[in-house]
Write a sequence for this structure.
């Protein structure tokens, strides 16, 4: 019995949560091209200090990922979600961060079909030290026609100018005055209770244009009004969660 | 209502917007959860954000084309549902006069969804506007869980 590539593709799609199974199947020469599409769909790059579980087929140190991509450039076409993560290391100095980002920028610019980027760091300040090369590479990739989402697991501190209809989430910080134009959806992660309305208003005014969809939580202390005022002309979908307080 | 005490936020929801809005789809997520005090009190207290959700809906009534309201109720036992004050949902009756379509999803975690729907309709049947809007197909109470990204 011969199973078509399409059916195999569907089957391996179901195996994404079971990486060991995918890795085992990727060693088969016939299955390998189909399996790798799923295996490398979401890749994590660890910057900063050495990561104990790196090189586990989906989490890499930057130089290992570069080597892998040099050996098999087709993998570049499989990576749709790229997560860039700084390891929590109090000894990490600014110079090291900048150097790692500069080096990784050369790799980042090669990804042709990224759909989603996730930037995580235990310290908000890490993203303040972005090198120009890395920022340019990031901005460039977020302007790809395929790019749809960018998520910050910390403060949004990048002064990016992105013209895509992106979904953006993150904590509102003391961001530099870049602007996300035509945002498809904005998901502030801060509980709005902790946000000062004037800060939210300032942030929204200087960073958001043409917002179409907004998802937020518990606007009990105000602030939502200011945000809605900024995007009243374009907002189509509003999603508000009310949390219970004990 | 049994011997329950409903806790809610002590203050009102501030005005959510002043600029004119035309929202195509308003999604309101709300919850009713038990307060863990069984060791102190013989009854269950509940904390709810339903009154705030109702107030938000009332503010958006004239600016919304389509409303989805999702209520998560953290029931511990089947009989708990009788203790929950669902009266804030009465706002959906008047909302249905202005909003062309409303979807209501209630998930209890333990009750079969069809049973939750039946209990809900039973609790809301005293509100004429609600029954009218259900009969007219404007308000739809769903018996399956709504999953929104």
């Amino acid at each position: 019995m011969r199973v078509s590539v399409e059916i195999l593709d569907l089957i391996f799609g179901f195996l994404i949560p079971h990486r060991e199974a995918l890795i085992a199947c990727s060693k088969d020469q016939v299955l390998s091209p189909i399996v790798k599409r799923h295996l490398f769909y979401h890749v994590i790059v660890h910057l900063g200090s050495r990561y104990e579980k790196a090189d586990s087929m989906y989490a890499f140190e930057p130089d290992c990922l570069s080597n892998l991509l040099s050996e098999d450039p087709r993998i570049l076409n499989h990576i749709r979600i790229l997560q860039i993560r700084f390891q929590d290391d109090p000894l990490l100095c600014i110079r090291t961060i900048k150097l790692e980002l500069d080096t990784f920028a050369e790799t980042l610019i090669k990804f042709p079909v990224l759909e989603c980027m996730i930037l995580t760091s235990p310290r908000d300040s890490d993203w303040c030290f972005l090198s120009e090369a890395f920022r340019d590479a990031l901005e460039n990739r977020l302007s790809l026609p395929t790019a749809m989402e960018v998520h910050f697991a910390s403060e949004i501190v990048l002064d990016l100018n992105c013209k895509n209809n992106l979904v953006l989430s993150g904590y509102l910080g003391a961001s530099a005055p870049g602007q996300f134009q035509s945002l498809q959806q904005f998901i502030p992660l801060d509980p709005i209770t902790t946000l000062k309305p004037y800060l939210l208003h300032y942030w929204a005014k200087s960073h958001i244009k043409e917002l179409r969809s907004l998802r937020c939580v518990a606007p009990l202390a105000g602030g939502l009004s200011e945000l809605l005022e900024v995007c009243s002309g374009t907002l189509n979908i509003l999603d508000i969660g009310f949390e219970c307080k004990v | 209502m049994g011997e329950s005490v409903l806790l809610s936020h002590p203050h009102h929801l501030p005005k959510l917007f002043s600029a004119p809005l035309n929202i195509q789809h308003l999604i309101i997520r709300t919850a009713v959860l038990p307060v863990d005090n069984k060791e102190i009190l013989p009854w269950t207290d509940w904390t709810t954000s339903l009154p705030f959700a109702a107030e938000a809906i009332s503010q958006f009534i004239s600016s919304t084309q389509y409303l989805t309201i999702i209520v998560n109720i953290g029931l511990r036992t089947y009989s708990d549902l009788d203790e929950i004050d669902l009266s804030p949902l009465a706002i959906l009756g008047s909302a249905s006069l202005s909003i062309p379509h409303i979807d209501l999803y209630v998930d209890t975690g333990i009750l079969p969804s069809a049973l939750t729907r039946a209990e809900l309709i039973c609790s809301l049947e005293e509100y004429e506007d609600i029954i009218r809007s259900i009969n007219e197909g404007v308000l739809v109470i769903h018996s399956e869980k709504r999953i929104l990204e």
User: Anything to note?
Assistant: Chain A touches chain B through 23 residues (CB under 8 Å).
